[in-house]
Design a protein that fits this description.
Elements lengths: L4 E6 L3 H12 L4 E4 L16 E3 L10 H18 L4 E3 L2 E5 L4 H12 L5 E3 L1 H7 L3 E3 L4 E5 L3 E3 L1 H14 L3 E3 L4 E7 L2 E6 L3 E9 L5 H4 L19 H4 L4 E3 L14 E4 L6
Helix pairs in contact: 1-5
Bound molecules: flavin-adenine dinucleotide (FAD).
The site of flavin-adenine dinucleotide has 28 residues, from helix 1 and strand 3.
Length: about 260
């Protein structure tokens, strides 16, 4: 039985656009489908920036994955001639024994990453825009920085198309089913077959999993930023013990400054 494509990727946000690019780079016949025209403002990858950091507080197991991601971002920048990552350095601020500072320090030490531990006093001296109560500590990570997610999606898609991937936008997938040893994918406009299927529809995942019901929930993520931090005209007051009533963790804070340290 022959298939239209070797792989179909559903959803072309940060994850799917990267998958389409890497599959096309491996020489596979790929189709990428999206319900909108990415990059767009409806998915998780919308916005100007995303943090990249090496000293993963969540678990040291992530560090090699992030290190590989740094290599791949550098490679993509080289292939495209576009800047996708800006190293700014990053601060993880929180209680000394809290999840963020304790975890980032553990990862940094285990993987011998460049980092600096700052006491509350050192932190206020080096970054006077923070007025911090409750004597928090900080981990400074010089390799951390920001990615430009929408530019990254566009770049992955441009390069994937150049490598021969077929991309279809504004055509939502509403169903897929087994087809021989592969799959058939139904969109609003058409249907396609492939040996393999990659589902990367982000928050829409639940609607495409069929009977494989997984315990997924969509959570709102809130960001804040201030360009005034750059000019040091703005001060942020943080009380680490206080009332972020809905947070399960002791409050900690990640700061990415477009500033040289010192
Ligand atoms: C506010 C916020 C801040 C974040 N900060 C960071 C950070 O600093 N660092 C970090 O690493 N991560 C961060 N993340 C997480 C990161 O942004 C996400 O993990 C990433 O963007 C997820 O990409 P995605 O491709 O899975 O999802 P999306 O970008 O949502 O892409 C899913 C795509 O699937 C398409 N789609 C959905 N359903 C269908 C369908 N039926 N048919 C066809 N297409 C479909 C959608 O149109 C969309 O284009 C943050 C997330 C948010 C929301």
């Amino acid at each position: 039985m022959s298939f239209d494509y070797e792989v179909i990727v559903v959803g072309l946000g940060a994850m799917g656009s990267s998958a389409v690019y890497h599959l096309a780079q491996s020489g596979l016949r790929v189709l990428g489908l999206d319900r909108y025209q990415p990059p767009h403002s409806f998915g998780s990858s919308h916005g100007l920036t995303r943090i990249i950091r090496e000293a993963y507080f969540e678990d040291p197991l992530y560090v090699p994955l992030v290190q590989r991601a740094y290599e791949l971002w550098a490679d993509l920048e080289k292939q495209s001639g576009r800047q996708l990552l800006l190293k700014t350095g990053g601060l993880m601020i929180g209680p000394p024994d809290g999840v963020i500072v304790g975890g980032a320090r553990h990862s940094a030490e285990q993987h011998k990453l460049a980092h600096e531990i700052l006491s509350s006093t050192e932190l206020s001296r080096k970054f006077p825009m923070f007025r911090l109560e409750d004597n928090p500590m900080a981990v400074w990570e010089p390799r951390a920085g920001i990615l430009f997610p929408e530019r990254a999606i566009q770049t992955h898609l441009d390069l994937a198309a150049r490598l021969g991937a077929r991309l279809r936008f504004n055509d939502a997938v509403h169903k897929w089913e087994p087809f021989g040893k592969g799959v058939r994918v139904f969109t609003e406009a058409s249907s396609y077959t492939a040996n393999q299927l990659v589902l990367s529809p982000g928050a829409w995942m639940d609607s495409l999993l069929g009977e494989a019901k997984l315990p997924l929930t969509v959570e709102r993520q809130v960001l804040f930023g201030s360009s005034q931090l750059r000019s040091r005209k703005c001060f942020i007051q943080i009380n680490f013990q206080s009332s972020f009533a809905n947070m399960r963790l002791t409050v900690s804070f990640m700061a990415f400054l477009i500033l040289a340290m010192g």
